[in-house]
Amino acid sequence: MRIKILITFLFLAVMSSVALAASVRVITQEGVIRKDRRFFSPPVIRAPYGSVLEEKGRQGEWLLVNYRRKEGWIHKSGVQGQKFETTSLASGRAQESSQDEIAIAGKGFTPEVEKAFREKNPNMRYDQVNKVQNFNLDEQRIQSFIRAGGLKEPGGGS
Known about the structure:
Blueprint: H1 2-20, E1 22-26, E2 30-34, E3 43-48, E4 52-59, E5 62-67, E6 70-75, E7 79-80, E8 85-87, E9 94-96, H2 99-107, H3 111-120, H4 126-133, H5 139-149
Antiparallel strand pairs: 1-4, 1-7, 2-3, 4-5, 5-6, 8-9
């Protein structure tokens, strides 16, 4: 009888811990999960847009997460952990926003904003913007640049 009670207790304990596990979704083009709670810390793994990460803990503005059996830190600005409800001013009804809409809004860039920007800046070299966006450096070169330049974290951290 004691064995059954113990097994039942263990089962309930495991199930409640699973129920309490939080998850967050990457809302940037790529979520960089880092070794430490610093923007210049080397990445442990990269998670593409929409990836679901298991949240293990929080410290300040950083979340300790698990993704594909790798653990590290990601800044809260790159993830979203819940659905947002927005209220339509015209109808007064709440409507759910998609993850894409939340990510775009977080960047402050909508189709309307893009159109207005293009109209105000017709001579902008968008081909050059695309070229910069597609430029990739390996992490070793980035870390070497940070060390050689003596770069520090925002707010004075190292």
